[in-house]
Design goal:
mainly alpha
């Protein structure tokens, strides 16, 4: 079995943990995803308002 490169190790571990979380606690995972998407949308909206203010 080939060894994982250091750049691929952390994302692989995070994906395994995320998949385990989704399987074991789907409701909490859905809430976390909704909260994250909402936060990203608010940041994007704030950046849009800021850039519109620049002219």
């Amino acid at each position: 079995m080939p060894a994982l490169r250091p750049r691929r190790f952390l994302p692989t571990v995070l994906m395994i943990v995320a998949a385990f979380f989704v399987v074991t606690q789907p409701h909490k995972a859905a809430v976390a995803v909704n909260t994250t998407v909402d936060a990203v949308q608010k940041v994007a909206q704030a950046l849009t308002v800021f850039s519109d203010g620049l002219g």
